[in-house]
Amino acid sequence: SLFLDHNDAISTFEFDKETDLVLEDTLYNFDIYRLKKPLYPGDSLKLSFSVKNKPNTSIRKNSSVVSNGTFINNRLFPTFGYPGGELTDDKTREKYDLPPNKLKPHPSDSTALGNTYISKDADWIDFEATVSTSKDQIAIAPGYLQKEWIEGDRRYFHYKMDSKILNFYAFNSAKYEVVQDQWNDVKLEIYYHKDHDYNLDRMMKGMKAALEYCSSNFSPYQHRQLRIIEFPRTSGGFAQSFPNTVPFSEDIGFIAKVDDSEEGGNDYAFFVSVHEVAHQWWAHQVIGADVLGATMLSESLSEYVTLKVIEQVNGKKKMRKFLKRSLDTYLTQRTFERKRENALMYNDGQGYIHYQKGSLVFYALSDYIGEKTLNKALSKYVKKVAFQEPPYTTSIDLLNHIKEVTPDSLNYLLDDMFETITLYQNRVVETKSEKLDNGKYKVDIEFKVSKYRNDEKGRAFYGDREKDSITYQTDEMKKPEYSVFLEDYIDIGIFGEDDDENETELYLKKHKISSIHNKISIIVDKEPKEVGIDPYNKLIDTNSEDNRKKIEN
Ligand SMILES: [Zn+2]
Predict the structure, then answer these.
(1) Residues of the chain falling short of pLDDT 70
(2) How remote is the CA of residue 249 from the centroid of ligand 1, in Å?
(3) Are strands 154-160 and 144-151 parallel, antiparallel or unpaired?
(4) In what order do the strands lie in the sheet with 30-35?
(5) CATH number of 294-419: 1.20.120.450, 3.40.640.10, 1.10.390.10, 3.40.605.10?
(6) Do 35 and 66 contact (CB within 8 A), yes or no?
(7) What is the CATH number of domain 119-256+267-286?
(8) Three-class SS of residue 203?
């Protein structure tokens, strides 16, 4: 039998082999057809279909076509297979006497690697489309324009892709203006609404920077063209990466009023462009199987590229702003979790894990093992799995590539960051400095380092066995402080000021820390003003505000 999932549009379906419709769920628009003659492996069956929206009414818009700025993706069309879409909240399920719902399979389940998480009903596809629109509009689909013509009052566009793509595509149409540029042999275009030209330079710069970073660090770009296409905010405030085609909401790019001044934030028209272009690698070349942790391979790595490009193009200060926001968002969002929080590599697809925690983790990793080393491992991984046929890759496969280049002394990082939920509570307790006879300064720092783990419900623990944890207790303390066993390398920083009162780095080095309570003395050349333990908040720390302390003399 055949499962056909569709929407509530007026549709016709026709198979080229005889079938019986045995179930038609008109509420969920899900049909089951029985084939008169069974289909054998490797055999084919053709489905012809038409989809037409119900007429719009005065209170309900049934068409996804708008007068200027249509954005439609392939969800308009039917798909094969069981659609999922079950109730996920266990309390609600209990009310209806349903068992707890099955979440995605674990990446170690080798029987579950047959589909990508993007599409259940197709592997890599050949794509060709003819789209027609109003005479005064441009219609866009993935691929390269083969032909354009006018017939009656319609304008036609014929697009064809020259390589295999994911079963994931979109159509846009509007009265567009076009700005063009070039990056090496790649033709760059931005299609925008007349007058919405505020951030075209920022977006073009983002496309180029991401193409440069990804192609020089991972693998060549697979297309000869890359386009950003504006759509109106009524369709949402996001951007989305399709093969060589990036629909982008006016909201977060074209009409955005970006404040990226010294005191301001990050240039999001720029960095959203970077993130989406990075998906041409991390989704459109490497796509994870439909199991837990799949989005680490797409969203976390696109965020990692974004952070690295921000650091390269806009400087360390902007990068730190991005990191701090990621940390704060992660810490806040996880408190709202209703179902469970898994470790990054087994995540259920929550944004605060695959974007925010993912960006923190990959950034920290690049700091610990080196950006070049990490990117080499990523590049080796891309070569192994890009455009692969099933079984598809998983987060375990990626982590194994990272393990290969990680020294034993830093293996704990991979446990902490990928395989468990581990949070630090690092803070400076006391600090003072003293000017020495030779003109240098001696800085004493008393600080605490500890970390704990969380299970999926947010309960804290310090290790699986007793010897996994360490304690610290003084006579005055009623209860000891605990930590997961430490042999951790953590930045200690000492900062001064230049003549304009800007912070300068006098000392920054990773120290091996093996106890909760620590005292250290460091000599620096210039007058110190502030000290810090993990002062740049590279680690996931429940309180990022107490990592630094001013020196009181
Ligand atoms: Zn993304």
Answers:
(1) 466, 553
(2) 14
(3) antiparallel
(4) 19-25, 30-35, 2-5, 79-80
(5) 1.10.390.10
(6) no
(7) 3.30.2010.30
(8) helix
CA 299 to mean position of chain CA atoms? 2
In the reported structure, the alpha carbon of residue 276 is separated from the centroid of ligand 1 by a whole-number distance in angstroms of 6
Rounded distance from Cα 472 to ligand 1 centre (Å): 43
Compute the distance from residue 169 Cα to the ligand 1 centre, in Å. 15
Which one-letter DSSP state was computed for residue 8? S
CA distance 419 to 412: 10
- For 423-443, the pLDDT digits (tens) are 999 999 999 999 999 999 999
**Alpha-carbon dihedral angle through residues 183, 186, 187, 192, given to the nearest 10 degrees:** -70
User: Ligand 1 centre from 373 Cα, in Å?
Assistant: 24
ipTM (interface predicted TM): 0.98
Q: Distance, CA 298 to ligand 1 centroid (Å)?
A: 7
Distance 278 CA to ligand 1 centre (A): 8
User: What's the gap in Å between 117 CA and the centre of ligand 1?
Assistant: 14
Query: In this predicted structure, what is the pLDDT of residue 208?
Result: 98
Report pLDDT digits (tens) over 484-536. 999 999 999 999 999 998 899 999 999 999 999 999 999 999 999 999 999 99
Distance 277 CA to ligand 1 centre (A): 9
Q: Ligand 1 centre from 9 Cα, in Å? A: 29
Protein residues with C-beta less than 5 angstroms from the ion ligand 1: 299, 302
Domain range summary for the chain, segments of one domain joined by +? 1-102, 119-256+267-286, 294-419, 427-550
SS3 at position 454: strand
Distance 240 CA to ligand 1 centre (A): 7
**Would you say the CATH fold of 294-419 matches that of 119-256+267-286?**
no
Take residue 377 and report the two structure tokens written for it: 């491992």
* pLDDT for position 34: 96
Ligand 1 centre distance from Cα of residue 280 (Å): 10
Percent of the chain clearing pLDDT 70 (strictly above): 100
How many A from CA of 500 to the centre of ligand 1? Answer: 40
Give the CA distances from residue 230 to residues 18, 172, 324, in Å, rounded to whole numbers and listed in that order.
43, 9, 30
